[in-house]
Known about the structure:
- The structure holds 3 protein chains of 3 kinds.
- In chain B, 27% of the residues lie in helices and 27% in strands.
- Chain B is α/β, with parallel strands linked by helices.
- Chain B folds into 2 domains: 7-47 and 150-217 and 320-376, FAD/NAD(P)-binding domain, CATH 3.50.50.60; 89-142 and 218-317, 2-Layer Sandwich (D-Amino Acid Oxidase, Chain A, domain 2).
- The longest helix of chain B has 17 residues, at 344-360.
- Mean pLDDT of chain C is 89; it is low at 475-493.
- The two termini of chain C are 22 Å apart.
- The radius of gyration of chain C is 22 Å and the shape is globular.
- The chains are: A mainly beta, B alpha/beta, C alpha/beta.
- Chains in contact: A-B, A-C, B-C.
- Chains A and C meet through helix 1, helix 2, strand 4 and strand 6 of A and strand 8 and helix 3 of C.
- Strand 17 of chain B pairs antiparallel with strand 22 (465-466) of chain C.
- Chain A: It comes from Streptantibioticus rubrisoli.
- Chain A: InterPro entries: 2Fe-2S-bd_N, 2Fe-2S_ferredoxin-like_sf.
- Chain A: This is (2Fe-2S)-binding protein.
Amino acid sequence: MARTPSELVRAEPGPPFEITVDGRAITALPGQSIAAALWCAGVLAWRSTRGGGRPRGAFCGIGQCYDCLATVNGEPNRRACLVPARPGDAITTQEGHGRAGLGV
Amino acid sequence: MGDSSDVIVVGAGVVGAACAYYATRSGLSVTVIDRGPVAGGTTGAGEGNLLVSDKEPGPELELALLSTRLWRELAEPLPLQIEYEAKGGLVVASDPAGMDTLRELARGQEKAGVLAEEIPADRLAELEPHLAPDLAGGFHYPQDAQVQPALAAAHLLRASDARIRLGEEVTGILTATTGEVTGVRTATGTVHAPHVVNATGTWGGELAQRAGTELPVLPRRGFVLVTEPLPRVVRHKVYAADYVRDVASDSAALQTSPVVEGTPAGPVLIGASRERVGFDRTLSVEALRRLAAQATALFPVLAGVRAVRAYAGFRPYLPDHLPAIGRDPRVPGLLHACGHEGAGIGLAPATGALIAGMLSGGPLPLDPAPFSPARFVGGAAP
Amino acid sequence: MPDSASEPYDLAVIGAGCAGLAGAVTASELGLRVCLLDGSGQVGGQFFRHPAPALGALRPQALHHDWPAFAALRQRLEASDTRRLLGHQVWTVTRGSGELWTVHALSGVDGGAERPVRVHARAVLLATGAYERQLPFPGWTLPGVVAAGGAQAMLKSGLALPGKRIVVAGSGPLLLAVASSLAAAGAQVPAIVEASGYLRYVTHARALVANPRKVLQGAVHGASLLRHRVRPHSRSAVTAAHGTDRVEAVTVSRLDQDWRPVPGTGRRISCDALAVGHGLVPQIELATGLGCATRRTPDGTHALVLDGRQETSVPGVWAAGETGGVGGWELARVEGELAGRAVAFRLRGVLVDPARVRELRRRRDRMRAFADAMAVAHAPRPGWTHWLDDDTDVCRCEEVTARRVREAAAELGARDARTVKLLTRAGMGWCQGRMCAAAVACLAAGGGDEGVPPSPERRPLAVPVPLGLLGSPAGADEAGADEAGINEAGADE
């Protein structure tokens, strides 16, 4: 019986690489979305809500709910469940709308 | 099932709500009937503009100035949730000729009591830091304000103490043998009243017809683009000088002029398109394209921001761009309060106050003659 | 394939799941010029979602009982002339001049280097699938609470699990499949919680008997669950999720006939994730934007009205799969082929194989009957609203609580989801009500059976569009024969 998803499908991915979450390094596999890499690292939340400041992460997993919005390499509001992880990606926990810098 | 009151208001949009509010405050008993929910028509599709800046001197501006005052008063007792903001308007011109046009407009408006301050090009950024740098200047109108229209209608209606019957369509107007209105028939029964107020907005012609009269209200479609939630990036209601021209135009073809504003909830709203295509909701990619292009020309920072929603609304258009407020000379007891085109939210309180004054015999806050539905009698629109 | 930008395709297929794949390859094999668009970088849709090639999965079929059927469709696609625009999200479809349709899309997966792409075609096949229906409960916004189909999707494509001990809950046949694949992938699944009573299938025994394959699938999942010692709870629901920054436990309560929790039956189950969902909602906004007629399905969603040839009420616009009512991948494949054949006949007079079409229709009708029986069995009952407390966020995006939704209905004159939205912002956020509209409609109707909106939500923009792209000049980027567009999202198998 398989103990991990990778064992189940007998994955032989290319070399793993690092991405960072709020500066902390985690390992991602080539072909994984950012959300999948975060889940594999035990990270379930990477956004705080605009109203209550509550933690959120991936929910629908298919790009429909927009709960997984993350700031990726400085660009806010990217759906982590769709965006492929790339070596060196810097994910930062998105505060609310993620565009505080635009406020006047 | 029978029911009676002094006044029946047909339409639970913002104008109907304001009529009910001021009529009940005049001591009348009011029943409000709508075939849909509260704010189900054009009110729910509006941006909630309370503007004096876009109106040329004349009766509509008088109505707008009165409304501006009344909205300020209403914002006190009504809960915060109507999102009343005295944010002010900023009209900008792209070239010196446009500035000349704005100056001329402002001079006339000032005589009528409008506050307007010329903003030279180098001061625009103080008011709106994200505005494009190459504009010729603009005018600031501190009296312009905004409410969230659906909330405004719902809270006005609740504060009115009127009886409210939603989801009930008025299928006919009851009249006595002598011709006076005695009430309305609905899908589920009759309601009696000696006065019926037609506050059905864009559908005002339909109700007039059921009463055996006519009112030439036509839909003038507009699209609004709604962005993702943002911090405050636009402080005022900002629009280009072309907007005033488009509002006043009679063309049926697509016209767009950029109108950009933030909301307390976060999204930026982008209008305004106008076209007369009947009640067709089909998305016009061309209208959206122009709105987006014009808005990003005014505020380049919006280019990287996403539109998450677009919707269409149908402004109640009357051929002379003035609302119909007052008694229908052909049907005693029938009053009209519709045809405000794109200004219904702004003009609602003054309309309600006028209607209430006419119903109760009280003093009228301004001369209603220019708005009289009698101007359409005889088939010749003015 | 058209050789100039001005020459339209015969058929634009939107969605590369089973329905869209079957439709595209059928039409292409019958000689039509076909363009297939999908938001994902890979074909397969939600059901046959699979790891990206870079993950090097040698046995993707371990997560799919029916992998050979998909592999066959994919092979036919690769052998065909079908233009593939993967990683293209369609935001609207409009009617152009001269019986032509224009499909407006954004290339590039969500952000980054997006650009506008337009595809012109003489017919459109909408195969846009479905998304999951959610019914909120206290704690459902906690990290670790994920959609059941979402957990499945993240596992199938990213080989990721949300936790080690995952409760699966909600209603509908998807739950069995989710629980069994999570368990197969190494997760512990302490409970599978189904709100309906499975016994209700019995009243639709004829449809079940006519679909032995479905029964077999259920049995396969059932056996797998037994093997993994997954405890089934029927007529029960997760009525609360507990935790502060992530889920630590759930409360499972027994439900009465109307799905009201039975007082005193709540039991706490510790877990570090919950996968939850209540069936699927057809994704039909592109169709409703074109004015296609809809119908209410037996489980209270809206699906497209289709004729016997899979055409919508708008001539020239066809649909297949979940858009016409949720029914699973086999039905989708059959409908896709029917649609592909019907379009070929309409546009080119390609004679159909009458025996084949008769057979396909027979299978479609049988599977539709089965899907309807399932929908009836799992349709949410109005008592579910008793799971909510006043402070539960119903709208996840705009954080609108059940209290505010109820107030809008009771005190402010809202009678439907649209008015609740105007008065509370529920459904106005990024997801445009996809996660909350079903719940809001129930609450607006006071929890009664009237909780189905009379018409589907209008979403003129099917996905968010950057204003800079929306405002780019018309005609700038016709995608008739833009070779760069092929497989641009790249690296499809």
